[in-house]
Amino acid sequence: MNPNNQEASAVNVNTITTRKRSSKVARRVSFDRYLRIIQRQIHPACKISADSLRALNSMVGSLFKRIASEAGELAKKEKRPTLMPRDVEFACRLVLPMELQIQARAAGDKAVEKYQDTLQHERVQREHAQRQ
Q1: For residue 95, what are the domain limits?
Q2: Which among 36, 50, 70, 71 is most buried, taking Cβ atoms within 10 Å?
């Protein structure tokens, strides 16, 4: 394989290339902010060490990578270029243990419902503005 080849066979979730004036800048994807928010919601009096946060960040990144790759494979089998919510749901079923599957599905359903409500609210506001 040619090392100068720009095509990658796998996506590295730890770095994302972004465009900035025609040059690519790699930035590290981190879930630290979200992990701290969840930790404060569950145990507001406790703190989390940097080492523990790094370990959790690694676990979440690895899990995200496994779910994303499995969802991509499912979409590829269906001969679709786009991931659908159904692909992610089935990937979670394949990757996660039963209790986490239930929690993930409930959270995903809630997020999709909230998104659809937002779209409907914006549509109603546009229609109301057009009437006036």
Answers
A1: 32-131
A2: 71
Number of domains into which the chain is organized = 1
Cα separation of 55 and 51, whole Å?
6
> Against a cut of 0.70, is the pTM above it?
no
- Helix residue ranges per DSSP H, 9-131: 32-42, 50-77, 85-95, 98-131
Calculate mean pLDDT across residues 84-92: 90
Half-sphere exposure of 41 (CA within 13 A, CB side): 6
Taking the C-alpha atoms of residue 26 and residue 130, their distance in angstroms, rounded to an integer, is: 44
64 Cβ contact list (under 8 Å, min separation 6): 13
d(C-alpha 114, C-alpha 122), whole Å: 12
